[in-house]
Write a structure and sequence with these properties.
Order of helices and strands: HHHHEHEHEHHHHHEE
Strand content: 5-15%
Number of helices: 11
Bound molecules: zinc ion
Distance between the termini: 67 Å
Largest sheet: 5 strands, mixed
Radius of gyration: 23 Å
């Protein structure tokens, strides 16, 4: 009898415990997903909350961007409810983890190629992904005021702006923009034909251009330089390969 009672009680409590456990487990999984939601591995992602973003390190954010690009390459992009992400982001404010500076290139949309959602990153686009004062100001807002932890400069292969700079193209306001890319053309050491028809040279210049942009961000933004030196943010570089769909992070 005693044993039965105990069993009964145990069974009852066991039942309750199981329910509690399931509830707790679900909650824990939920938090786990949310904790990595930028970026996590479960079926659905939601817009980042402030708490989720704040507990991630710059390195963790970059790792999740790499994972997202891996999912994209494998055709394993996560199912997303963009409307839900939009509504959540709108309701609670935005807490993006990074600011990405990339080219206006139509074939390299950052959220798509890194499998990110609404509210995950700030985006700055300009032909040739160069960082002059307005872009720097935008990045300073993103990091210092809004709490983003990664500044990612992303160049890409076969970039028309880079080719234009190599070819000394002149066209309206574009002339002045290309002039800002030309230092990268000069600074690129390359064995082979230094021409826009040489894809390898174009990509080498694009890579150098990302490096110079990263250096320019440090040199021309005291705000970002200070955040980077404290380890609050990381300034990172990358190249996107249009053919392989790979984002190659410099570090
Ligand atoms: Zn481009």
């Amino acid at each position: 009898m005693k044993s039965k009672t105990i069993e009964g009680a145990s069974g009852e409590y066991g039942h309750l415990d199981r329910r509690t456990f399931l509830t707790v487990t679900s909650a824990a999984i939920g938090l786990g997903v949310l904790g990595e939601s930028l970026f996590g591995n479960l079926v659905y992602a939601d817009a980042l909350t402030k708490e989720q973003r704040d507990k991630m390190t710059p390195e963790e954010i970059i790792t999740e961007m790499k994972r997202g690009n891996e999912r994209f390459r494998k055709g394993e992009r996560r199912a997303r409810d963009f409307l839900k992400e939009q509504q959540q982001a709108s309701a609670k404010g935005q807490y993006p983890a990074a600011v990405v500076l990339s080219c206006i290139e139509s074939r390299a949309p950052a959220e798509v190629i890194m499998d990110l959602g609404i509210g995950d990153i700030f985006n700055a686009h300009v032909a040739g992904n160069i960082a002059k004062s307005d872009i720097l100001g935008s990045m300073e807002f993103a990091c210092k005021a809004a709490g983003a932890k990664v500044v990612l400069v992303m160049g890409h292969t076969a970039c028309g702006a880079i080719k234009g700079a190599i070819d000394n193209v002149e066209l309206g306001n574009l002339t002045g923009l290309l002039a800002k890319i030309k230092p990268a053309v000069k600074a690129t050491s390359f064995k082979g034909e230094r021409a826009s028809k040489n894809a390898a040279f174009v990509d080498a210049v694009a890579r150098k251009n990302v490096e110079l942009t990263m250096a320019g961000i440090r040199n021309n933004s005291a705000v970002l330089k200070e955040l980077a030196s404290k380890g609050t943010i990381k300034i990172a570089g990358s190249m996107y390969d249009l053919e392989t769909a790979t984002v190659d992070f410099f570090a």
